[in-house]
Amino acid sequence: MAGKRKKNPAGSTNSYRGDVLRVLGALKVAAADQIQRIGAPHLTFRHADKETPSKRKQARTASHTGALSDMRKHGLSENGGSTETGDSLRHLTTKGLQAASHELRRPVTEMGSTARGAGSSGASYPMAVNETVIAMLRPKPNMAVAVDPPHVQAAVDAPDSIGTIASYWTEVSLPATGTWNAPGKGGAQADIVLTAPQD
């Protein structure tokens, strides 16, 4: 068993685990594909030479899938069902939300709750909300680490994004009664809240 990692057997790194914490802390539930497109968009272009779409997707999401596996072992994340297309849905545990609050630099009281049960019916609505956030973020690949096929330059030349993943909150209670931290019954819930004064 020489050379086998004991703490993170899936071989994840701090940066990929940080990506997972930031994305799931903001979006609450997501597929590895969405986590990769937000956290490491350069991987989409690095693996463009694989023969089939499924092999490209598997190659570009492997690092974040490994991070999710290690985080699950440590009690930070859980599998939460699957989408209609068969992608596994992931969400954070209470312990994971505490770790995400550190990554997002938010108080734990503003992190909301875990998304347990959100994927039991395929989570089509949360996935659409996530795609909206990705469309507003427009994550750009880091040219220093991306292979440079011609279509990468188009992604880099695209308009700037609105905020960062830390600028977004999902499933935010808008209390009609109670307080922000302890909303009463009858309040609404915002799908996305964006705070990006720099933009």
How would you describe this protein?
The protein is an alpha+beta fold. The protein is 40% helix and 14% strand. The protein is built from seven helices and five strands; from the N terminus they run αβαααββαααββ. It has helices at residues 14-27, 32-39, 42-46, 53-73, 94-104, 124-137, 150-156; strands at 29-31, 77-82, 88-92, 168-174, 188-194. A three-stranded antiparallel beta sheet has the order 1-3-2. A two-stranded antiparallel sheet has the order 4-5. The longest helix has 21 residues, at 53-73. The chain is globular. The termini are far apart. The relative contact order is 0.16. The mean pLDDT is 83.
